[in-house]
Amino acid sequence: MPSMWVFGYGSLIWKADFPYEKKLVGYIKGYIRRFYQKSTDHRGVPNRPGRVVTLLASTNPDDQVWGLAYKISSQNIENVVNHLDFREKGGYIKKTVLFYPCDFSKSIQSGEEDNPNFAGMENVDTIARHIIVSRGISGSNVEYLYKLASAMRTIAPGVQDEHLFALEKAVKELEQREEESLELDQFS
Fold this sequence. Notes:
Layout: E1 4-8, E2 22-29, E3 31-39, E4 50-57, E5 64-72, H1 77-87, E6 92-100, E7 104-111, H2 124-133, E8 135-136, E9 139-140, H3 141-155, H4 162-186
Antiparallel strand pairs: 1-5, 2-5, 2-6, 3-4, 6-7, 8-9
Helix pairs in contact: 2-4, 3-4
Pfam families: ChaC
Enzyme class: lyase
Organism: Cyphomyrmex costatus
């Protein structure tokens, strides 16, 4: 059995908690990364779901999503697939895509629009309000957002992920307003 490659575009970038032989920086084409997937476990709870990223097919075939690809040895494929199926539950499905700059296919898990945890195409401010108050067993939703933004600046400097960085800015602005409000309350 040959090896398998897995493409990480969210928390798999900074938390690859499975054995791999090699990792590569690169991108896939024809997709966009969006915080449109609800998280009722890792970054939220059922009554206050957080938001995590998913991939959506783009109308522009040249759109790119940057991330990391992990090479899984043939003897670890079954265990890694089972682990990722459990970790990435909640509406994600597997697809095979072409990875660049190396022209070979990778396995991805993506939350499709017809899954029950797809939050819909909300605007950045609405998503930011969900993120700032959500927390799950893996930590705060804010932490997830900030780690992803930081990781993308590290692995793909100069690449602008407009949705990701606009969301990061919106959450920071909400945090700043919250902090200023708390300071005012202390003097009231």
